[in-house]
C-alpha cells in the first residue's frame, strides 16, 4: 500500500500543472541613491511593477515570455533625465541575469551583465547605436558650427546622416547574429525603418529557425505587404470590426473609390488631419466615394475613447488582423491608400496636408471634377 501510495503521489505530481518558466534579474548597485531606491518593470503587455533596492541589491522575478521582453528603469534615473530610456531584457531563455552597476548616473543599462548572451548582445547593440549617434552629432556640429539644434537645415542633415549610419549599423549587427534570437529581434524592432529591399536582404540572411520564429513571421508578413502595396495590385479582401463589433468586409465597398485612412489614437498628425478630412468627406461623399478608417491601435479602449472625441462621420474599424502590415506594409501613420472601384490600389500617400495639395487630393479632384 505504501508503494502504491508513493506511485500515486508521483503520478499526481507529474500530471499537475507545469510551472511557468521564470526570468530572474539580480542586481547590485553602488552609490548614494538619495532615497530613490526603486527599480521599475514595464513593457508592452507586462504588468507594471517595482522592487526596492535594499543594501545595494535588488531582485526581480517574473514569468519569462519569449518575444515579449520586459524593460527595467531605476527611479534614480528619473531624477537625472525627464524621460530616461528603459533597458530591455532581451532574454532568449528563462534563467537568472546579473546586473552589477557601479555608476547609476549612466543608467541600469551601463551595468556589467552576466547570465544570458542575448541580453549581453543587446547591451552591446545599444552601446554601438549610441556611439553612432555621438559620431553623427560630431560630424553635424562640425558641418554647422554656427547653428543650434533648432536650425532646420542642421536637423535635416542630422536625420539623413543618422538614418544612413544606423541602417548600415543595424544591417551589420543582424548579419553577424543571423542565427541567433537577438539578430531576429533587432530586425523585427527596426523593420519599419528599413527599405523593402534591405529588409528582404536581411530576412534572407536569417537561419531557418529564426525565420520560423514569431518575429521572423512578422517580418515575412511585412515583406508580403510590400509586394501587395503597389499601384495596380488588387487588395486582398479582409474583414474587420466596427466599434459596435459589426464586421465590415472590404469587398462590400466595391464599386466605389475608397480612401483607406490608417491612423491611431496616439498619432498627433492623424488627429490634426481630421478637420481637413471631414471637409474632404463632405465634398466627395457619394455612392461613388467612401473613406474607411482603420486604426492600428493595440489598445481598444484608447481607440474607442478617441473615436468618441473625434466624431468621425466615415466607417471605422480596428486592425486586429495586422492588415496594415501584411496587405499594406504601413510604416507610419497617417497613411492613406486610394482604391479603385475594382478594388485595386491607385496610389499611396503618407500624411494629409491642409492645403489640399497631396497626390490623393489631386487625384480626387481629377476623378470627380470638384
What does this structure look like?
The chain is an alpha+beta fold and 370 residues long. It folds into three domains: 96 residues, Immunoglobulin-like; 107 residues, no CATH class; 130 residues, Glutaredoxin, CATH 3.40.30.10. The protein is 41% helix and 20% strand. The protein has twelve helices and 15 strands. The strands form four sheets. The chain has a five-stranded mixed sheet, covered by helices on one side. Strand 9 and strand 10 form a beta hairpin. Helix 5 packs parallel to helix 8. The N terminus is likely disordered. It comes from Chitinophaga defluvii. Pfam families: AhpC-TSA. Keywords: Cytochrome c-type biogenesis, Disulfide bond, Redox-active center, Signal.
Layout: helices, strands, pairs:
Elements: H1 2-15, E1 22-29, E2 38-42, E3 49-52, E4 57-63, E5 71-74, H2 75-78, E6 87-88, E7 95-101, E8 112-114, H3 117-143, H4 152-176, H5 181-189, H6 196-205, H7 208-211, H8 214-228, E9 239-241, E10 247-249, E11 257-263, H9 268-284, E12 289-295, H10 300-310, E13 316-318, H11 323-326, E14 335-339, E15 345-350, H12 359-368
Parallel strand pairs: 1-7, 11-12, 12-13
Antiparallel strand pairs: 1-4, 2-3, 2-5, 5-6, 7-8, 9-10, 11-14, 14-15
Helix pairs in contact: 3-4, 4-5, 5-8, 6-8
Amino acid at each position: 500500500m505504501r508503494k502504491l501510495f508513493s506511485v500515486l503521489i508521483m503520478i499526481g505530481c507529474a500530471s499537475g500543472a507545469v510551472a511557468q518558466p521564470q526570468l530572474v534579474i539580480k542586481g547590485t548597485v553602488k552609490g548614494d541613491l538619495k532615497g530613490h531606491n526603486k527599480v521599475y518593470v514595464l513593457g508592452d503587455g507586462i504588468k507594471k511593477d517595482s522592487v526596492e533596492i535594499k543594501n545595494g541589491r535588488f531582485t526581480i522575478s517574473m514569468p519569462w515570455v519569449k518575444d515579449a521582453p520586459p524593460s527595467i528603469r531605476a527611479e534614480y534615473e528619473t531624477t537625472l533625465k525627464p524621460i530616461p530610456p528603459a533597458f530591455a531584457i532581451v532574454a532568449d531563455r528563462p534563467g537568472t541575469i546579473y546586473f552589477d552597476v557601479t555608476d547609476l548616473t549612466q543608467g541600469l543599462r551601463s551595468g556589467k551583465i552576466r547570465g544570458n548572451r542575448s541580453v549581453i548582445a543587446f547591451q552591446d547593440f545599444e552601446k554601438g547605436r549610441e556611439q553612432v549617434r555621438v559620431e553623427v552629432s560630431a560630424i553635424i556640429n562640425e558641418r554647422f558650427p554656427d547653428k543650434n539644434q533648432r536650425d532646420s537645415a542642421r536637423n535635416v542633415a542630422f536625420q539623413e546622416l543618422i538614418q544612413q549610419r544606423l541602417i548600415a549599423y543595424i544591417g551589420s549587427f543582424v548579419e553577424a547574429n543571423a542565427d541567433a534570437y537577438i539578430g531576429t529581434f533587432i530586425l523585427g524592432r527596426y523593420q519599419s525603418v528599413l527599405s523593402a529591399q534591405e529588409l528582404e536582404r536581411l530576412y534572407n540572411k536569417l537561419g531557418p529557425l529564426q525565420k520560423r520564429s514569431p518575429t521572423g513571421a512578422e517580418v515575412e508578413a511585412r515583406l508580403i505587404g510590400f509586394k501587395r502595396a503597389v499601384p495596380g495590385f488588387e487588395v486582398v479582401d479582409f474583414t474587420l470590426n466596427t466599434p459596435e463589433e459589426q464586421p465590415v468586409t472590404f469587398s462590400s465597398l466595391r464599386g466605389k473609390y475608397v480612401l483607406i485612412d490608417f491612423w491611431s489614437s496616439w498619432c498627433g498628425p492623424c488627429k490634426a488631419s481630421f478637420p481637413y478630412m471631414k471637409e474632404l468627406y463632405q465634398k466627395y461623399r457619394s455612392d461613388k466615394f467612401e473613406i474607411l478608417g482603420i486604426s492600428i491601435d493595440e489598445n481598444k479602449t484608447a481607440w474607442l475613447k478617441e473615436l468618441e472625441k473625434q466624431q468621425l462621420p466615415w466607417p471605422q474599424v480596428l486592425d486586429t488582423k495586422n492588415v496594415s502590415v501584411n496587405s499594406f506594409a504601413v510604416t507610419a501613420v497617417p497613411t492613406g491608400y486610394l482604391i479603385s472601384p475594382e478594388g485595386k490600389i491607385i496610389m499611396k500617400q503618407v500624411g494629409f496636408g491642409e492645403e489640399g495639395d497631396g497626390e490623393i487630393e489631386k487625384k480626387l479632384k481629377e476623378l470627380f471634377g470638384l
